[in-house]
Structures are given as C-alpha cells and as structure tokens.
Amino acid sequence: MDLDLDDATLEFRDEVRAWLAEHVRRLSSMDTEAGFAAHREWERELADARLSVVSWPEEFGGRGASLLRWVVFEEEYHAAGAPGRVSQNGIFLLAPTLFAHGTPEQRARLLPAMARADEVWAQAWSEPEAGSDLAAIRSHAVRTDGGWLLRGQKTWSSRAAFADKGFGLFRTDRDAPRHRGLTYLLFDLRADGVTVRPIAQLDGEPGFAEIFLDDVFVPDADVLGEVGDGWRVAMSTASSERGLSLRSPGRFTAAAGRLVDLWRTSPDRALRDRVVDAWIGAQAYRLHTFGTVTRLAEGGALGPESSVTKVFWSELDVALHETALDLLGPRGELEGEWLDGYLFSLAGPIYAGTNEIQRDVIAERLLGLPRGDR
Amino acid sequence: MRFALSAEQVQFGAALHDFLAAGRLDLAEIGVTALAVPERFGGLAADPVDLVVAFEELGHHAVAGPLVESVVVVPTLLADVGGDRWLPDLATGKTTASVVFPPHVPYAHEAELYFLLDGETLRTADPVKELASVDLERRLVEVVGGTALGTTTRAGRAFDLGVLACAAQLLGLGRAMLEMTTAHARHRTQFGRPIGGFQAVKHQLADVLIGLELARPLVHGAAVTLTSLDVSAAKVAAGDAAYRAARTALQVHGAIGYTAEHDLARWLTKTRALVGAWGGPSTHRDRVLEAL
C-alpha cells in the first residue's frame, strides 16, 4: 500500500502544472452567451495542448492517460483555479457511454468534435413528470424512414441554452414495461422542431433550459446502443456521473485549501470544527478515489458504491461553501467566487440522482435492506 | 501508486476475523501481540498498515483489554529504553502493559505492567486507584510514576501509532454495529413489514455506511504516511463515523439495544470510550489545523 507517484506521472503533473500556470485566466459565467463562447475557446486551447480529454485514446484527441493520471490532472486543474468545463456533459457523461456502447462510426464522428468543444453537448434526462422517477419518461420517438421523430418535452437540461447537441432517453415502445422500450438518442439542438427555452437558475443565469421537441428527426446513426436498451445504456453513464468522473477530488481539495486560508485571515473559533471537517472530508474523498483508481486498474468495476461517493461529495461541497460564507459574515452574500461556488454546490444533492435516491440505492444494493415504499 | 491492502494483509484480516469469531482470545497465537515489537526482541516489526488491519478486526469483535497500549504504544516506547527486559514477554503475550501518556491519556487501562511518560522520560508506574469507565469491560486506573528508565525519542511516534490503532479500532466497532443493525432491520417486523424497508431507517443506515467507507481511506492513508496531520484526521473521521454508527444502532434497535444484556452495549460503550481516548475530537482537530 503506497501513495507514491511514478516518475512518468510526476513528469506529466509538472507539464500540466506549468501549462496551467501560463494559461489559466478567469472567465465570466459559462451560462451567459459571451461566457459560453469564452469557455468554448478555453476548451480549444486545452485541446491544442492535448489536455482537454487526457484519459481518452490518442486517436480522439486524448493521451490514453491512466485513471491515476486523470486524477492527477484534475488535482492540478482545480488547484490552478482553472475554468469550469463547458463540455462537461459531453466529455464526462456521453463519452463514457460512447466508449461502452457506441459504434466505431459514432466515436470517430462525435468524439473529436466533443474534445475540442466544436460540439458542446447538453443532457436531456429529466421531464416535467420524470425527475427522481426517471423511468416515468413520456417523451417518445416514432419510427420514420431512416430514423425517428422525437416528440415531447425535456427539462432542467444543463447547458442547453447555448449548446449544440443533446442526448437523452426517449420512449420508443409504449407497450413495453417502463424500463424497457426506452432508447438512448442523440439529437441536434438546432434541428427543425426544437424549441429551447432557457431557465434562469438561482444565480439569475440560464444554466439550464426546457427543450420542446416537435417531430424532430433523428437518423438511425444517432441511436446509441440498441433500440429498446436505453435504460441499461444510460445507467452505465449514471455511475460515472455519480462516481469518479464528474466530481474529481481535486475540486474539493482545492476548495478546502482555500477555506483553510480564509479561516486564517479571520480565525473564528466557533467555525473551527467545520473548517477542519471540510478539509478532512476532502482528504477522505481524495484517498477514497485513490482506492477506487487502484481497484479499477486491477479490473474492478464502478458499481452501486458510486452512490456512496455521490452523497458524500455533494454534501461535503455544500458544507464547505456554507462554512466559507459563514466565515465571511456579512460579506458572504456579496458576489464572488465563494458565493458562486456555494450556489453551484446547492445543486449537487439534487442532480445525478437525488441523495434520497442514492441512499435508497445504498440501503438496498449495498446493505441488502428490503425495497420499500419510497 | 497502489492504494489497497496487499493480498497478505487481506488474508491476515480474514484469518484474524475467523479466529476472533471462533471466540479465541489468545492474541499471541495469531501474532497480534508481536506486531509492533522489533525483531531483535522476538517481534514481527510489522508495517503500520498491518497494525491497522489488526485493530480494525479487534474493534470489529469488541475485544477488551489494553490493546492499543500493550500491542502498540508500549512496544514502540520500549524499543530504545528497556526493551530487552519486557519486550520478549510482550511479544509472546506472556505479559500485558499499559501506559499513561499525559496530557491526552491521563489514565491507564488495567494491565500487568505500567509505564508513565514524564516529558521525554519513560518511567515505570504503579496503580493507585481504580476508575469506572462507561465501558464496563474497560478497567482504568490512576498511576504514580516510579523509576526512571531513560529518555525516549519515540514518544511522538508512539502517540501517533496509538491514535492510529485507536482510529482503526473505532472503524471496526462501527462496522460491527452497522452489520448487527442491518441484520436487525431486516428481521424486525412492525406494521406488518421489516423496519429496514422504511426510508427513515434505510437512510440512517446508508449514512452510517458512507461515514465508515470514507473514514477507512483516511486510516489507511495515515498508516502509510504516519504524519500527525493524517493520523489526527483519521481519528476525527473514524471517531465520528463510529459514533454515528453507535447512535444509529441504538435508535434502530430501540429499547432492546438499551439493555446491558444485548450485545450492542459492548460495542456502543467501547465506541463512546474510544472517541475520547488517545486524544478526543477537539484535540485532533487542533492538531490538524496546526499542521495545515
């Protein structure tokens, strides 16, 4: 058991650190038109340095980096205070699904454009009547010549206000049991029949949107996985979202370090425990991730235990930022990085499967408790 | 980097589990008492990760006695002062030892030999007064210092190893309480169904699991680095996680869990005792902040 990085990984870390030190700059919110464009430009700079998707194979713009190097990259990225990833839905959610279930043609066509943010993807899971109960999806796809026609409504669709493409689940067989008869489809947000209505989030910016679909054509080439197998295909993405890829530990260790610095400038005795616990929590998640990286490198899989980490990091994130705002006292309500981080953290216990759903998963699949009424 | 137990460590943990589950308590037989003793005194000079594996299992089975003291702290202190006199017998389990380590360890667990750390001077000690602990199996004594044995340079390391072993024991206590409570929730029926099907119960148990699963990497990480920062962080997290397990276990068991006859009492009271032993949460949070 050790925590030592090998020489090649240290070399990689130094390269990333040096590149970030030279290039990182603060961008305006990605949920404004200008900020979105600036974030897209940032992704292209990352891609030019082959740093946008380090864990992907080289043919798609990556470096074939191991999971450990990806974690190291993320630590450096967050420690440097680098911009949020506008391509996050694509590179962390859709891409793992394309690697697992996509055709070679789909990968060749979609991944390089995703790696450079030439195409930015929005997720389209939730619907007005299908939130935690995702299998209650009503949006459907009707068979037509050479493809499908999408009808229905998606909501809380992150990045959809300014993104290029969307991915989500659609009912393709209304007679099948509800977890069957769903198909994973990719669609063009600029296609005929698509109406995107941006929704302002707590910070006033349109970080998500509603999507209305009125006979939107999707060619057969944009069916991901088998028709009718969408639930299984989507769930393979879900554990990436909850587990490793969406929330790298670097995000929390960097924020916890800044929280300790903030505490030093105004050492409020009453908040000491919360500051220390935030640091300990970030360190716990970091080490837990190293354990997961080791397990996956030795052939293990990311299963229901991703629910354990999802609850943990999302609650850690809220607690950490609440502590910062409390340390700031009356200045806590003012616009700034801590407030941005706080508002962002508040969504964590809700998205990627609410923490109530995750606790059900933990209790039923990890502890073996009986399924009960929700 | 490989952040996982080795196959041998996993095997050792499993063997110790089976041994203790069979009701055996002769820890020397399975090598536990020799773990922290240097090889020249007949010990195994084991890696701190091995200690952590052992102590998680000792906690898991709520083994009583001066374990942290006799197996970890005293052998570490005696390695450069008076080792030849006592360490061979500690390694073989022929005797047990305990230590008062001011300010964080003001009492000794009852044992056959007593020591007192007086600044950097290690002294023998004698028991003068018995004290009653919340854990009825944990017999504590006040001691007075006796003969000075010499100066030790290993006080810091001995303390950190004691804290680490205590943290691992807490993890094991917590894991056992989660197991017994999960089993209870599966079988105990109210309103015509197992109480484990109710979300109010499930979600509390899920939180217990989360706490323990995220505390274990800190304990393992601290065994690798052995820095005061990491050791203290591990003790805080393991103490919190085990304590949450204890409170939840009691609540889910209901009145039966509040009785002295029910097994839960042994785990519950040990947890309460060990949360404060070898430096309580406040002490270790201070150490974390100081080190940052």
Automatic annotation (TrEMBL), chain A:
InterPro entries: Acyl-CoA_Oxase/DH_mid-dom (IPR006091), Acyl-CoA_Oxase/DH_mid-dom_sf (IPR046373), AcylCo_DH-like_C (IPR036250), AcylCo_DH/oxidase_C (IPR009075), AcylCoA_DH/ox_N (IPR013786), AcylCoA_DH/ox_N_sf (IPR037069), AcylCoA_DH/oxidase_NM_dom_sf (IPR009100), Mycobact_Acyl-CoA_DH (IPR052161). Keywords: FAD, Flavoprotein, Oxidoreductase. Pfam families: Acyl-CoA_dh_1, Acyl-CoA_dh_M, Acyl-CoA_dh_N. Residues 228-367 form the Acyl-CoA dehydrogenase/oxidase C-terminal domain. Residues 122-216 form the Acyl-CoA oxidase/dehydrogenase middle domain. The keyword Oxidoreductase applies. GO terms for molecular function: flavin adenine dinucleotide binding; oxidoreductase activity, acting on the CH-CH group of donors. One of its GO terms (cellular component) is plasma membrane. This is Acyl-CoA dehydrogenase family protein. The lineage of its organism: Bacteria, Bacillati, Actinomycetota, Actinomycetes, Pseudonocardiales.
From TrEMBL, chain B:
Residues 155-281 form the Acyl-CoA dehydrogenase/oxidase C-terminal domain. Residues 26-94 form the Acyl-CoA dehydrogenase/oxidase N-terminal domain. Keywords: FAD, Flavoprotein, Oxidoreductase. GO terms for molecular function: acyl-CoA dehydrogenase activity; flavin adenine dinucleotide binding. It comes from the Bacteria. SUPFAM superfamilies: Acyl-CoA dehydrogenase C-terminal domain-like, Acyl-CoA dehydrogenase NM domain-like. Pfam families: Acyl-CoA_dh_1, Acyl-CoA_dh_N. InterPro entries: AcylCo_DH-like_C (IPR036250), AcylCo_DH/oxidase_C (IPR009075), AcylCoA_DH/ox_N (IPR013786), AcylCoA_DH/ox_N_sf (IPR037069), AcylCoA_DH/oxidase_NM_dom_sf (IPR009100). Its cofactor is FAD. Belongs to the acyl-CoA dehydrogenase family. This is Acyl-CoA dehydrogenase family protein. The lineage of its organism: Bacteria, Bacillati, Actinomycetota, Actinomycetes, Pseudonocardiales.
